């Protein structure tokens, strides 16, 4: 079975929560000390849409624009760009034919439109084992403190007969109501979708498809069900990656932050990992990277 068909198996109607056991929530922690009202009451309302184009949302992302397009170029070899328009390409991404065991990165994202600009993140090839992992490495100074060791994030591929997801964990700052508390490790999961999130991003095409980044341990829709800005299990959607429906052959994908992801509350480091994981996932789908490894796993 091809990788593209595998992604289609996990559509908007078949989202499943991760089996990982989350740490105590902020609201649970509140019970042990007096910080005022529970976090669920302090959190902003999640009952209304939080799409990037919503005029009531004031984007406050720290590192990246709220929305980025992926531009391929037939003249630039193994380099493509991320930008807000074809005339404003802000970040370069170089590619390689790296495979497992090679020390060279598969993808390198630069803090500027040229490969001579500082490196923001590097992703490794898929590990062709049952663990199905790749890594995202943030060098010192790229959303981390200069002089510190590089930060390595595991991007895990999980699959079953019904689902295939890409997940990672990362320490994010506490909500504004808990300012001063230490960062808490949270889990995030990319799920494939044909839902309103990608349709909105691509202009409403009924053929739109892509992926949504779900915050597993964050605020939930109080109804516990799907709604604008939420997955079918009530989890908040914080970013979306859509395959482009544009007639342009060079505009290949669209990325946007959503909900809490638009506010900057989860930090520049989270924004970088969210974007890098989206690019890694989209590149795997586009090129078939790791295809034979997936064929040899649980899905035949």
Radius of gyration: 19 Å
Number of strands: 12
Sheet with the most strands, sense and barrel status: 12 strands, antiparallel, barrel
- SSE run: HHHEEEEEEEEEHEEEHH
Q: Which class of secondary structure composition applies to the elements?
A: alpha+beta
Strand content is: 25-35%
Helix content: 10-25%
Low-confidence stretches: 1-55, 291-300
The largest sheet has its strands arranged as 1-2-3-4-5-6-7-8-9-10-11-12
What is the arithmetic mean of pLDDT?
A: 73
Q: What coarse outline follows from CA principal-axis ratios? A: globular
Distance between the termini: 6 Å
Count of helix runs: 6
Strand-helix topology:
Elements: H1 3-8, H2 26-30, H3 39-42, E1 67-71, E2 79-85, E3 88-95, E4 107-110, E5 119-123, E6 133-138, E7 151-159, E8 164-172, E9 184-193, H4 196-201, E10 210-220, E11 235-243, E12 251-257, H5 267-287, H6 291-295
Antiparallel strand pairs: 1-2, 1-12, 2-3, 3-4, 4-5, 5-6, 6-7, 7-8, 8-9, 9-10, 10-11, 11-12
Brief descriptors of the model:
300 residues; alpha+beta; 6 helices
Descriptive report:
The protein is 16% helix and 30% strand. The protein is α+β, with helices and mostly antiparallel strands. The protein has a domain at 3-15 and 48-71 and 128-295. A 12-stranded antiparallel beta barrel has the order 1-2-3-4-5-6-7-8-9-10-11-12. The radius of gyration is 19 Å and the shape is globular. Residues 1-58 are annotated as: Disordered.
């Amino acid at each position: 079975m091809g990788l593209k068909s595998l992604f289609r198996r996990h559509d908007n109607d078949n989202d499943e929560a991760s089996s990982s056991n989350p740490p105590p929530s902020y609201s649970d922690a509140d019970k042990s000390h007096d910080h005022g009202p529970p976090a669920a009451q302090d959190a902003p309302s999640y009952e209304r849409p939080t799409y990037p184009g919503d005029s009531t949302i004031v984007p406050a992302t720290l590192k990246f624009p709220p929305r980025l397009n992926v531009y391929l170029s037939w003249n630039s070899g193994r380099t493509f760009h991320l930008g807000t328009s074809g005339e404003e390409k802000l970040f370069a991404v170089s590619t390689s034919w790296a495979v497992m065991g090679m020390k060279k990165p598969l993808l390198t994202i630069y803090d500027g439109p040229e490969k001579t600009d500082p490196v923001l993140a590097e992703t490794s090839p898929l590990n062709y084992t049952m663990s199905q992992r790749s890594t995202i490495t943030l060098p010192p100074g790229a959303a981390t403190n200069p002089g510190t060791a590089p930060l390595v994030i595991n991007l895990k591929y999980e699959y079953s007969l019904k689902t295939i997801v890409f997940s990672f964990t990362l320490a994010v700052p506490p909500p504004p109501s808990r300012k001063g508390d230490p960062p808490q490790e949270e889990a995030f999961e990319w799920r494939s979708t044909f839902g309103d999130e990608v349709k909105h991003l691509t202009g409403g095409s009924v053929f739109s498809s892509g992926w949504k980044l779900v915050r597993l341990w964050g605020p939930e829709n109080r109804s516990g069900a799907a709604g604008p800005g939420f997955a079918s299990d009530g989890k908040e959607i914080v970013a979306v990656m859509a395959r482009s429906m544009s007639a342009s052959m060079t505009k290949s994908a669209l990325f946007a932050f959503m909900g809490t992801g638009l506010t900057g509350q989860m930090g520049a480091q989270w924004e970088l990992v969210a974007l890098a994981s989206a690019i890694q996932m989209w590149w795997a789908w586009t090129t078939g990277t790791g295809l034979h490894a997936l064929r040899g796993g649980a899905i035949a």
